[in-house]
Amino acid sequence: MRHDVARLRELGYPVDAVRGPGGRYRLGAGARLPPLLLDDDEAVAVAVGLRTATGTAGLEEPGRSALAKLEQVMPDRLRRQLTALRTASTAGPANTDSDVEDPEVDPGVLRDVAAAIRDHQGLRAFSRGEPVELEPYHLVAWQRRWFLVGRDVPTGTWAPYRVDWLELRTPGGRRFTPAPFPGDLTEFVVREVARTGWAVHARIVVDASAEEVLARINPAVGTVEALPDGRSVLVTGGDSVETVAVWSGMLGFDFHVTEPPELVEHVRVLADRYTRAAPAAG
């Protein structure tokens, strides 16, 4: 009993003791939070929430501190899972919001992917129905989505994989020795997602130089390519044609869209709408 009471006090539970024949122990009013009892998915949810907080101005240090304290009072099994998720992930730059509902990410998949990164364990999965076998390297949280940076086993090429598009297969792949990643992880994810990872992709010719366009966009919007005639191409994407059209109009430059056809049609609709909204001159 004394051993158990001492352990409770070490964990932050105030325990009052009365000696003598009528002696007893009694839990006192707590001045500190007791250990939390969380199941696996709740622990992942808390870790993801605190990871998001560390990417918000003013909450970086409190978020890191809270996550560290949470890990200290967790059972070893959950602490290993939280540590794996924390060390295996970073947050990308904030960007313009979207009109499409956020995708749901299975906490179990996040947990399994983080553990595979920690243990250097290969993954076999379906990504949007296509089979993939990869060496998981790192998780990047960006635009309220999670991307797994991994190396394709058959080809050796690096790519970001949307975690909510992954359906893990059992058994997984073989253990591997991680290869060094060639570059900056966050820049790689932003660039590759702009090129291949959105539901809608577009190449927009802008009547301005690459330097002028880069000065006006968030780096998370996409990549900019210079053209020989002094103009530039913005390679970008989004969850919907509406989002891409809004981003394009906010550049402040004339631009030209030729694909995809759905985006071309939506730009025409917006042009007509704005024309009707503006009173005729004179």
UniProtKB/TrEMBL annotation:
GO molecular function: DNA binding
Keyword Lipid biosynthesis: no
Domain WYL: 109-166
Keyword list, A-Z: DNA-binding
Residue span, WCX domain: 199-273
Keyword Nucleus: no
This protein's name: DNA-binding transcriptional regulator YafY
Originating organism: Isoptericola halotolerans
